[in-house]
Task: inverse folding
C-alpha cells in the first residue's frame, strides 16, 4: 500500500504545501495576510465609514473571507492552497474597486483611500503566497521527496 501511486502522489503534494507554508517567509506572509483580512473586516468602524452600510458590509464579508482563505484553514493540499491564493488575489482586486461599484454613493475620500491601500496590500500578499507555493513546487526544491511509483511495465 505504501508504494501505491496515489498514496505517493498525495504524500508529495502534502510535502510541497508544507514546504511552502513552513518557511519563515511563508509564515510571515500568512500572518500579514490574516491581519490584513481582519483589518479589512473592521475597517469601516476603524476609519469611520460604518454609516455607509453597503460598503461596510462588503468590507466585513470580504475581509473575513480573505482572512480565512489566507490563513490556510481550508486547504493543506497544494492545489487548494495555490487556488486559494489566486482567489485571495481576486478579493484584493475587488477591495480596490468596491467603493465605485457597490450600491449607493460610498466613494468618499476615506473609503477610497482605505480600500485602495488595503486592497493593494491584500493583492501583494496573495501574490507572494502564490509565488511561495510555486517556488515550493519547483523541481529544484523537490529533492528529497519520495520518488514516483513505477509499475515496471
Result:
Amino acid at each position: 500500500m505504501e508504494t501505491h501511486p496515489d498514496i505517493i502522489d498525495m504524500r508529495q503534494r502534502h510535502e510541497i504545501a508544507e514546504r511552502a507554508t513552513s518557511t519563515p517567509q511563508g509564515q510571515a506572509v500568512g500572518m500579514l495576510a490574516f491581519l490584513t483580512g481582519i483589518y479589512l473586516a473592521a475597517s469601516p468602524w476603524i476609519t469611520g465609514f460604518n454609516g455607509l452600510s453597503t460598503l461596510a458590509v462588503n468590507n466585513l464579508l470580504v475581509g473575513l473571507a480573505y482572512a480565512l482563505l489566507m490563513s490556510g484553514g481550508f486547504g493543506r493540499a497544494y492545489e487548494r492552497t495555490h487556488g486559494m491564493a489566486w482567489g485571495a488575489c481576486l478579493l484584493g482586486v475587488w477591495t480596490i474597486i468596491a467603493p465605485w461599484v457597490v450600491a449607493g454613493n460610498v466613494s468618499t475620500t476615506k473609503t477610497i483611500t482605505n480600500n485602495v491601500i488595503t486592497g493593494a496590500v491584500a493583492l501583494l500578499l496573495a501574490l507572494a503566497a502564490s509565488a511561495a507555493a510555486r517556488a515550493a513546487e519547483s523541481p529544484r526544491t523537490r529533492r528529497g521527496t519520495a520518488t514516483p511509483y513505477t509499475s515496471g511495465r
The two ends are 18 Å apart (CA to CA). The chain is about 75% helix and 0% strand.
